[in-house]
From TrEMBL:
Keyword Membrane found: yes
Alphabetical list of PROSITE patterns matching this protein: PROKAR_NTER_METHYL (PS00409)
Protein name: MSHA biogenesis protein MshA
A Pfam family annotated for this UniProt entry: N_methyl
Domain of life: Bacteria
Keywords, comma-separated and alphabetical: Membrane, Transmembrane, Transmembrane helix
NCBIfam families: IV_pilin_GFxxxE
Transmembrane parts of this sequence: 12-31
InterPro entries (alphabetical): N_methyl_site, Pilin-like
Presence of keyword Hydrolase: no
Length: 156
């Protein structure tokens, strides 16, 4: 008689159970990409705002408005010291804000941002700490600052 080689049913079941346990414990760590995607989108928004501010500053410098301490409109964008102001008609008009909205106080930590700052977040986002904060220039020597607060970009 020939002896058949192969795996027994018990061995196959044990291997399947081990693979199932690995899938249950390890897969969520690798498959939860939404948080990373939100943070990457905020970094992209920061880059878009930074680029838009640079372009507006260039246009203001060509017109000689880069040292103006009062608000000046440059191609429909309100500027101060050549950079967009922290307002919807400032930085909000300088970049394509279709998927983004001004961050409500629930997103910015329960209180309004100080004067000279504005936050942008996802249009459908309400969790605190998931926005890009734009601070307008306060003098000709100091440009705008952009800060990404992505701590609250986890799933609700």
């Amino acid at each position: 008689m020939k002896r058949q080689g192969g795996f027994t049913l018990i061995e196959l079941v044990v291997v399947i159970v081990i693979l199932g346990i690995l899938a249950v414990t390890a897969a969520p760590r690798f498959l939860n990409l939404q948080d990373d995607a939100r943070n990457s989108a905020l970094q992209g928004l920061k880059g878009a705002m930074d680029g838009a501010a640079g372009i507006v500053y260039g246009k203001a410098a060509i017109r000689g408005n880069e040292a103006s301490a009062s608000e000046v409109a440059v191609d429909g964008v309100q500027t101060i010291f050549g950079y967009p102001t922290a307002a919807a008609n400032g930085i909000g008009a300088a970049f394509e804000s279709g998927d983004w909205a001004v961050a409500p106080t629930s997103v910015t930590g329960g209180s309004a941002l100080p004067a000279g700052q504005i936050g942008y977040t996802f249009s459908d986002r309400t969790a605190a700490g998931c926005y890009v904060r734009y601070t307008q220039a306060t003098s000709g020597a100091i440009a705008t600052t952009l800060v990404v607060d992505g701590d609250g970009c986890t799933l609700d």
